[in-house]
């Protein structure tokens, strides 16, 4: 299997608590190895 690097854009809904107004925040993750698990990608 061929391995490669990729870039990922995550849009995550964030809200302080159930009563607060929330919104999406955008996170850019670059040069992710195709061998990396999604969980590992999030914790880098």
What does this structure look like?
The protein is mainly beta and 44 residues long. It is elongated. β1 (5-14) and β2 (23-33) form a beta hairpin. It has one domain (5-36). It starts with a strand and ends with a helix. The protein is 14% helix and 48% strand. The chain contains 1 helix and 2 strands; from the N terminus they run ββα.
Radius of gyration: 14 Å
Outline the low-pLDDT stretches: none
The main pleated sheet reads as: 2 strands, antiparallel
Order of helices and strands: EEH
> What helical percentage do the residues reach?
10-25%
How much of the sequence is in beta strands?
over 45%
Number of strands: 2
Determine the N-to-C terminus distance. Answer: 24 Å
User: Overall mean pLDDT score?
Assistant: 88
Structural class designation: mainly beta
The DSSP helix count reads 1
Shape: elongated
| Sequence of strands across the biggest β-sheet | 1-2
Number of domains: 1
Structure, briefly:
The chain is mainly beta and 44 residues long. The protein is 14% helix and 48% strand.
Strand and helix map with partners:
Blueprint: E1 5-14, E2 23-33, H1 38-43
Antiparallel strand pairs: 1-2
Keywords:
single chain; 44 residues; mainly beta; two-stranded antiparallel ribbon; 1 helix; 48% strand
